[in-house]
């Protein structure tokens, strides 16, 4: 596959990354939970490793700068063909660009931004590093969902910035939009109203595929993590929301195969 063929369409989630205080302990947690191995990545923002699953890159973990007191959180990166132009659009549409745009060595060019409701996401313009080499298999990212107070206004921001088409769930009590590119679902926006966690505010949630959600929940606890929402059956399959020992929140999912949901 050529680079051009492998390059993701603008707006497609292409990578997930986590900034933490304790790199070694965090790598140990995810190695035990997902079977990840690690190798060094670009160091522009400090120490950084890429997580590999069976030799394929699936995620990144970086060292939080000691002078930055930011939330420890998984951050999805959305593909762009021109990160500088996308960053300008983010600002024009009411968002904020907090880091960059800047070059990440030979890997590509990046920025970290937040939408008008405050949810943080990355923007990635690929060069040598095209992003996740695997998705939807146990140990790899499977889905990204924006959790926010209400979908309507913030969805307009993402639509204007990345060109998404929206598909709403028609329901009086369920505020949910699927974001599509070229007809294919790539992410979602879930409006949860006053159920939005006050300590976190609007945020992107990364779903990681696992072979057995209940077994993985038990392992999270054994490894020093926390269960925030116990295992339950949902529209995407069986899910549980957990946090790693530093508090980074993510969802475990055993996806329902298409046609069975």
UniProtKB/TrEMBL annotation:
Database matches in InterPro entries: Anthracycline_SecMetBiosynth, Glyas_Bleomycin-R_OHBP_Dase, Glyoxalase_6, VOC_core
CDD domains associated with the record: SgaA_N_like
Source organism, top-level taxon: Bacteria
Matching Gene3D superfamilies: 2,3-Dihydroxybiphenyl 1,2-Dioxygenase, domain 1
Domain annotation VOC: ranges: 12-126, 140-255
Segments passing through the bilayer: none
Protein name: VOC family protein
Lineage, highest ranks first: Bacteria, Bacillati, Actinomycetota, Actinomycetes, Kitasatosporales
């Amino acid at each position: 596959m050529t680079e051009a063929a492998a390059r993701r369409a603008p707006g497609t989630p292409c990578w997930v990354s986590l900034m933490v205080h304790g790199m070694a302990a965090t790598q140990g947690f995810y190695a035990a939970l997902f079977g990840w191995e690690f190798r060094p990545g670009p160091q522009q923002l400090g120490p950084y490793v890429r997580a590999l699953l069976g030799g394929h890159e699936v995620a990144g973990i970086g060292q939080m700068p000691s002078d930055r007191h930011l939330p420890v959180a998984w951050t999805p990166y959305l593909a762009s063909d021109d990160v500088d132009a996308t960053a300008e659009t983010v600002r024009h549409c009411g968002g904020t660009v907090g880091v960059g745009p800047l070059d990440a060595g030979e890997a590509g060019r990046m920025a970290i931004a937040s939408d008008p409701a405050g949810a943080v996401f990355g923007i990635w313009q690929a060069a040598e590093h095209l992003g996740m080499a695997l998705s939807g298999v146990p140990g790899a990212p499977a889905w990204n969902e924006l959790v926010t107070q209400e979908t309507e206004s913030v969805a307009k921001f993402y639509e204007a910035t990345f060109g998404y088409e929206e598909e709403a769930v028609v329901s009086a009590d369920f505020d949910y939009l699927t974001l599509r590119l070229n007809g294919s679902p790539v992410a979602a926006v879930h409006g949860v109203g006053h159920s939005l966690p006050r300590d976190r505010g609007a945020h992107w949630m990364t779903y990681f595929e696992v072979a057995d959600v209940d077994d993985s929940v038990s392992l999270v606890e054994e490894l020093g993590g926390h269960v925030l929402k116990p295992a339950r059956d949902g529209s995407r399959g069986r899910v549980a929301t957990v946090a790693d020992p530093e508090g980074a929140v993510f969802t475990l999912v055993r996806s329902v195969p298409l046609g069975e949901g």
